[in-house]
Design brief:
With 91 residues, the protein is an all-alpha fold. It has three helices and no strands. Helix content is 33%, strand content 0%. The longest helix is centred in the first third of the chain and has 12 residues.
């Protein structure tokens, strides 16, 4: 499995154009698959979210999601935090 995370800054006042271009030109290039990752202090907090809030998330997205999302829980054994300077962009 390979994950690619792209972060960048938009030019001032370009959010509407970005949204339109992303929806009309980028998304149609491939099937649309979404991976959402949330990090929790402990398993109990993650399980509480799963029981209380996640059903509401599914309900809110039911008209736009195909099938049932697959949830996989795992332990984070190591992580790093990278700090960048203000105004820096990544690709």
């Amino acid at each position: 499995m390979f994950a690619r995370n792209v972060a960048f800054s938009l030019k001032p006042n370009s959010v509407p154009e970005f949204t339109q271009k992303f929806e009309s030109e980028v998304l149609p290039l491939d099937n649309i698959h979404v991976h959402a990752i949330s990090l929790w202090e402990n398993r109990e907090h993650a399980e509480a979210y799963d029981k209380k809030a996640y059903p509401q998330v599914l309900e809110a997205l039911e008209k736009i999601v195909v099938g049932t999302p697959k949830v996989r829980i795992s332990n984070v054994v190591y992580s790093t935090v990278n700090v960048t300077t203000a105004g820096a962009t990544a690709a």
